[in-house]
Amino acid sequence: MSHSSTNFSTNLHVLDGKNWNRWSIQMKAILGFQEIAEIVEEGFPELITEATEQQRLSYKENKRRDCKAMCLLHQCVDGAHFEKIAAAKSSQEAWRILENCKKGVDQLKKVRLQTMRRQYEIMQMEQSEKVAQFCNRIISHTNAMKACGEVMTDQTIMEKTLRTLIPSFDHIVVAIEESKRLEYLRIEELQGSLEAH
User: Fold this and answer.
1) In this structure, what are the phi and psi dihedrals at residue 15, rounded to the nearest 5 degrees?
2) What is the number of other CB atoms lying within 10 angstroms of the CB of residue 43?
3) What pLDDT does residue 74 have?
């Protein structure tokens, strides 16, 4: 099967709301390869009433390229995003709608992250909680924060763990801090040391 210079066969990635960064990079490359990126980015002028034959031909070509871009966008979004761009009059409008959806997702992540930070700050080990349960709760919570863009080092997480253990662990915490350098310790090793005591 032969392909012309503007057709290609590939698995197109679908925008699902969680993969905007990767999806937009890939879509820009595809749109560039298809020679329709500028139509999506800049749009094209409407046809004026007194248009010359050249202007009519140019408009017709731009409209064809815009339809090609819309077709690609429709194929590369999930159902929820398709509904958002279904009424768009141009590929440029559709792209702007998708970008605005991304901004909404980012804003939601920021709000969610603020809530998680607050929960993280007040997190303490419960009296009846086992070390493994507490460590798993902290790791699960910090993983959720990282998924929303928070940058956290293992050392920060271990320091939080040691600070928030119940008082009966105080002497163990001192022993761990004196005998091991936290910057070289892994979270699993810390958990193992705590469970051993």
Assistant:
1) -70, 125
2) 16
3) 94
Lowest average pLDDT, out of 16-20, 80-84, 139-143, goes to: 16-20
| pTM higher than the cut 0.85 | no
Per-residue DSSP letter, 12: P
Return the structure tokens found at 88.
């768009």
Q: What letter represents residue 185's amino acid?
A: L
C-alpha torsion 164→165→168→174, nearest 10: -80
CA pair distance 37, 177, nearest whole angstrom: 56
Helices (H), 34-181: 37-42, 53-75, 79-85, 91-122, 131-147, 154-163, 170-179
- Give how far Cα 153 sits from Cα of 121, 142, 160, Å: 16, 10, 11
Q: CA of 189: how far to CAs of 5, 180, 196, in Å?
A: 56, 10, 10
